[in-house]
Structure formats: structure tokens, C-alpha cells
Amino acid sequence: MRTPLIAGNWKMNTTLAEASALVKEMREGLDRIEGTDKVLCLPFISLATVAGLLRGTSIKLGAQNMHFEEKGAYTGEVSPLMLIDLCQFVILGHSERRQYFGETDQIVNRKVQAALKAGLIPILCLGERLEEREAGETEEVVTWQVQGALDGIKSVGGLVIAYEPIWAIGTGRAATPLESNATIKLLRLTVAELYGEEVAQRMRILYGGSVTASNIAGFMQQPEIDGALVGGASLKAQEFVEIVKQSAAIKKGK
Fold first, then answer.
1. Cut 0.90: pTM above it
2. What is the pLDDT of residues 114-173, one digit of tens each?
3. Confidence of residue 201 (pLDDT cuts 50, 70, 90)
4. H or E element: which one contains 114?
5. Which phi and psi angles does 60 have, rounded to 5°?
6. How far apart, in Å, are the Cα atoms of 45 and each of 16, 20, 42?
7. What is the set of domains in the chain, with CATH numbers?
């Protein structure tokens, strides 16, 4: 059995004071939920403060990005070595990084390698655009993305994949649970081809894209979906706690 994982991606939201208040509001509720890993992926400025607020709880922290070099003349960047004392996870390859900042599969590949070397757990994001979906290219696109992101990497450790169809991110239009399960099954088969069946069956693969407390149950009832990468709903304390609570109950029931 793969332990479910629910990660909240706060994106570029919350001041330091707002982040602290939001964590305090959801901390007790999240900490009480067992059987599911809970990760909050925050802006860099909040990681150190929130790490202190979460000390002694079961809630883990993640960053939303990082550079692939350990140090150097990269003004404004944050390296894996700067993160390892603050968090356990790091989101890599998010579609917004690809779209707005020109990240390619090759860049994502270097970041994944650097994260694994530093001992961070990457949450590797991938997914198709609307025009690719409508052209029937979903399978080709996501297969190519996972192969490119993992190219040359011999051991993936605890790496997590998040399947996020780009057309569903922040739009309120989620993919159906059955569609998502089928794509995630394909991703698991691709991982099996690269690393073997045992690694593929251990790897957690999440769904992301307009996840809410109202639709999470449908996704978590699918056998291949191990959790969710939650965007806007993770900025609402009670809703995020409810998403985690439902996920834990459904997976425990299986």
C-alpha cells in the first residue's frame, strides 16, 4: 500500500504574517489526521518561520521551486543546499514555471537530479495543454515529459509525480477521475519501463488541477491515484483539512 499524500501549493500568495496565521488555523486539524502524508508548499520567505510552527507535528514542508546548482552567481535563485534544513519536499516542473519562465524538460531534469542528490523529495509536475488533449496527444505528451525529466537518473528514491493537466489548473474545470486514473496508470507503466515494476508500484502519483473538497472523493476512489496537489483550495484552512480528511478515510477504507 502506498501512503496517500496531499500537498498544498500556495503559489505566490500570503505574506509572512498571513502564512503564519493560515498555518496556525489548519495545524491542529491536519496534525490529527493519520494515514496520509500532509505537505505544505510555501513561498521561500515563509519556510523558516513555518518550519518552527510545524515542529513536533506530522505536517511536512515543501518549496515551490529551486535552482539546479548548489551555489554560485545566480542572483535571486535558491539552491537545494539552502532548502535541506527547512523542508523535505520541492515542487519541480510546475506548468507555471514551464509557461512563464521557460523551463524545459532538460532544466527540470537537472533540478530533479540536484534535489535527489541533496536528499530532497521532488514532486515532479507534468501534464498536457488543452490543444494537446483535444488533438488526442495526452499519452504521448506525458510519456515524453516523464522520460525527459528522469533521463539519466539511475535511482528516483521517493520521488513523487503530480499529473496536472494544464487546462485544469486554476480553471475550475477538473479532469474526470476515470480520465485521470487512466493517465496516471500510463505514467506508472512508463516508470516501470524505466525502473522496474517494484519501483513503479512504490511511487506515489498525484492528481492536480482544480481539486476541491467537493471533488476529491472521486479522485481518491481511483486505484492509481495516490493523492493530490491542491492549489487554491489549500489557501482555505477548513477546506484543505477536509480534503485531507476525506482522502485519509477513503484510502483507509480500501
1. yes
2. 999 999 999 999 999 888 888 989 999 999 999 999 999 999 999 999 999 988 777 777
3. very high
4. helix 105-118
5. -105, 165
6. 7, 11, 8
7. 5-253 (3.20.20.70)
Residue type, 224: E
pLDDT of 31 higher than 90: yes
pLDDT of residue 92: 98
Chain centre to alpha carbon of residue 154 = 21
CB 33 within 8 A of CB 248: yes
Please list the active-site residues.
94, 164
Q: How far apart are CA 210 and CA 187, in angstroms?
A: 20
H or E element at residue 130: helix 130-134
Q: Is the pLDDT of residue 254 over 70?
A: no
Strands annotated E in the chain: 5-9, 37-42, 59-63, 89-92, 121-126, 160-163, 205-208, 227-230
Q: Phi and psi (nearest 5°) for 155?
A: -135, 125
Residue carrying C-alpha cell 520567505? 45
